[in-house]
Predict the structure.
Amino acid sequence: MSELSRRDAIKLAVAGAAVVILLGAVVFSQMESRHSRVAVALTGGDATRAPPFLRRYGCAGCHDIPGVPGADGLVGPPLGNLRQRVFIAGVLPNNADNLVKWIVTPTSIHPASAMPVTGTSEREARDIAAYLYRR
């Protein structure tokens, strides 16, 4: 194989890898967009507003929350893939209204819960729920 043909083969391989990476990014973006639309429809919330609330109300200190810098707490359960779980807090069927109620007033559902009432409004809880359901 001549030097020129080796270079051409390397360029072709790099171009092929770039195409594969680009296609993967497009597919991932479409999946993320679909998940976001579903989360908004389920909760009526806006996931883009949630990260500051997750920090302000202390969620990030107790939970591992994907996509939120510093949210690596080990007190509560990790909150990734929450939409795929059957129960919230081990007792509530997992649906948007129950998740919002749990976020706003966890002790009304489980009085001995370690999760405190944080002062989160229902509107903020819907945004948080949308964020957690889109992941």
